[in-house]
Amino acid sequence: MKIRGGYLPPGFPQAADIPLHTLTFEQRGERIEVTVPAPNAVQLSQLAAYLRERQQELLAHMPVQTVVERIGQAVVRMLEQREEREEAARCLSAITGYARETVRLGLIRTLQSFRPPQLQRFLAQDLHNPAILDGFVPQPSGGWTRAYGPELSTHIWSGNVPGLSAWSLTGALLVKSAVLGKCASSEPYSAGWLASGVGEGSKELAECMAVVWWQGGDERAEEKAFGASDAVVVYGSDEVINSVRGRIPAGATCLGFGHRISIGLVGAETLQVRQTALIAAAAARDMASYDQQGCYSPQQIFVERGGRMDPFSFAEAVAHELTNLQLTHPPHELSLAEAGAAANYRTAAEWSGEVENTVWRGPAGGWSVVYSESAELRPGGLNRNVTITAVDRLEEVPRLLKPLRPWLQSCGLSAAPERLFALGSLLGAAGITRICALGEMTAPEPGWHHDGRFHLLDLLRMVDLDRSAELAAEQAADYRD
Amino acid sequence: MTIEVHKRLQQELVSYMTASPEQAGEEEFNRLALELYRYQYEGNAPFRAYCRRQGKSPRMAGSWRDIPAVPIQAFKHSTLSTNNPDQAEAIFMTSGTTDPQARGKHYHPSLAVYDLSMSTAFRQYVMQERSRIRMGILFPRPDELPNSSLAHYLSLAARDFGSESSQYLIRDGVIDLSALQEWISEARGAGEPVMLLGATFSFIHALDAAGDSDWRLPAGSLLLDTGGIKGRSRDLDPDVFYTSLQERFAVDRSRCLNMYGMTELSTQYYDAGNAQTPAWKSGPHWIRPRTIDPLTGADVPPGQRGILVHCDLANWNAVTTILTEDVAILAEDGRHFQLLGRAEGSEARGCSLAAESFRAAAGTAR
User: Fold this and answer.
1) Which long-range contacts (CB under 8 A, 24 or more apart) does B2-9 make?
2) Can you state the angle between helices B200-209 and B238-249, rounded to 10 degrees?
């Protein structure tokens, strides 16, 4: 199967000259080729200049509420166009190997986050008064302030979790920035699909987005892209982010989203006989969804002793549910390196420690659960490999997390209401930036603070018009006394 | 395990190893492998526990392929020794580049079998017709690195196959460039072929330090590197590496041999030069390679990429069969393989931090 990826603004005059690059994927014997526009450095410069011009002409003066309507209505239409959406899910499943059902539901949930009310929530999350994006708004302390987004932002997307690009793409559009995106080599389809969908809903926005491909780290290409941008948003490893950060021109903003690790916490009080199976199933869903490739996917779950059901039974229940999920939501085909890492994780668990760990393995090595009685860090080997660790008290977990602090992200928490906020504070202090229910880990809410950051605010430049300027202007009024 | 069994096994092993490859048949290899499996299963508690966890025992094994392959990580966490580890003549340890806290340990109650394995294969694969050659060694001596199997290996090479004028060219852990230059000049003066041996990274350091030195070796000389490129020096494409060696030392790539060995093994594999990379490697008749799918443990057919497993009869005290982290392709004959590199821990495809990156990052932070 051959499909087109990427996106170019319809009015870009040199569009026909841009060469196409083909990325090939093979999963479960199915081969899929994705062709993406791959501009050279000169063409990239032309494209960036074009996007900047269109932004000034079409987007810079568009009221933010109009932007919300245009994006939101386009997204609603994408939700309504069932056949197109299913086709996109089919392509994405073929590219990534993730189960079709996982991708289908993932796309729906992602799109749901960008309908008009949810976009309003995005704005409200970061801005007291979104009109600040349209003109000067009065400040309670006196004076006026207006916010400007980047005229052009470059987005380096990476990783194969579909829909990840939607967050930074819409965030940038909301602050009226044109978007030059580099799609991920491991999943070059969804970003272009989203851009096309948004573009179909608005002639203006259509001209302010491009999704292309170049070899990540290609310094000549990136020099052109970064040089023309006021902001660069980069997803990837710490190494990639540091490399990009060092090449951003002075005065431009760089936002980096690195690889993260997430965990689960289960309180003894929630381990009632019937509840245990439900919580375990929720945790297993969080693992199976995107095969633990998301920054929000749990790699280790700490379970408190002393409940009606013990941590071992919880681990057993997770293993049971993973067996079911292997049939209903089969994992992607692992590369030799991935399989090796998973095997290493399992054998290391079997061979280390004074106390013998219990290891459950799925058929054909499709998943594993390592149950450990010793309270130590042992993040899973990705691809449905999780450690379940028994602890005496959940409150001791934040101390264990210390070595992971720079990389922590989400915590799926199952605990009684009276513990929620106290545990939340401990986890927050330890470096966790998002606490949610187990079962919801891979579906962050609209307006979440990704890695503890602001989606919009971090892109904005605030311009103050001081009260002194206002007073001075009064002196120049011809109607003054 | 009685001393008698132990002695009998050793004798049988020695006679198998010293037999010619034609005489040493597949059947006898199998018999010895299974005998050692029983010996190790009974005398080596962590190995026995591992087999039981896998639901395997010597009684169920009909072929050396049925012996559970022990992952090399296990050498870090467990004492894999059938005999009392406190009485070992030598303990070889892995370098522990990723985690210095955890070094794999290989206990050798006696080095007799190890030494026999080394010298027999070295004669067959490296020396061939020659009996002795002037050696230059780019690696520290065993007294400086008592737990290094490579230091021991190279000292054996020098002892058994080096001429009197052989010499170590490393001082205090760094290459002694003036000694190297002198050794080369003397070799050129003598006009006889020589052999330069050492760790791959030592060769890379030497190449980096060469400047405009004239290091051309006499015609017929050999180079032997081992250990691979990653980790201890700058990364170099193998093709670039061997071409650089050829140019610097005037030794044709077909005479640049690479030895593949591991601390966890007692036998080494060799190629017949690196005119092309990756070269095919093979070992003496008492070691057998396999390639498997790491998740299922099933054999991967020849010609396809798999993770390397070795069954080394000379590993009579630890475990004969080990699971490496190396990716390889097995030849149709089942005896040769092409090494394709290490199965690096999986870099996340998504945005989830892989445990290995975390360990690496936490390691640098320490």
Assistant:
1) B5/B39, B6/B39, B6/B83, B9/B35, B9/B36, B9/B39, B9/B316
2) 60
For residues A427 and A420, give the distance between their C-alpha atoms in angstroms, rounded to a whole number.
Answer: 10
Residues 138-177 of A with CB under 8 A from B: 158-161, 164
Kindly report the length of chain B. 366
Contact A201, A73 (CB under 8 A): yes
Instruction: Mark yes or no for CB contact A344/B73 under 8 Å.
Output: yes
Residue A450 per-residue DSSP state: G
> Exposure string (b/e) for A408-417, b if CB count within 10 Å is 16 or more?
bbbbbbbbee
Report percent pLDDT > 70 for chain B: 90
Residue of B nearest to A158 (CA): B350
pLDDT value, residue B363: 47
- Nearest-Cα residue of chain B relative to residue A291: B350
Q: Is residue B282 within 8 Å of residue B269, measured between CB atoms?
A: yes
pLDDT, residue B366, reads 30
Strand B256-260 versus strand A358-361 pairing type: unpaired
* Minimal Cβ distance to A351: which of B77, B307, B349: B77
Closest by alpha carbon to B295, among A159, A365, A318?
A365
pLDDT in tens, A63-92: 999 999 999 999 999 999 999 999 999 999
When computed from its CA atoms, the radius of gyration of chain A, rounded to whole angstroms, is 24
What ipTM was reported for this prediction? 0.77
Give the residue numbers spanning the domain of A385. Answer: 261-436
Burial of A310 (0-12, 13-18, 19+ CB in 10 A): middle
* Residues in chain B whose Cβ is within 8 Å of chain A: 46, 49-50, 53, 71, 73-74, 76-78, 293-296, 305-307, 323, 325, 327, 343-358, 361-362, 365
Which residue segments constitute the domains of chain B, with CATH numbers given?
Answer: 1-88+285-366 (2.30.38.10), 112-284 (3.40.50.12780)
Backbone angles phi, psi at A405, to 5 degrees: -45, -50
Query: At a CB cut-off of 8 Å and minimum separation 6, what does B129 contact?
Result: none
Mark whether A250 and A283 lie in a shared domain: no
CATH number of the domain where residue A189 is located: 3.40.605.10
Residue A479: inside a domain, yes or no? no
CB B346 within 8 A of CB A382: yes
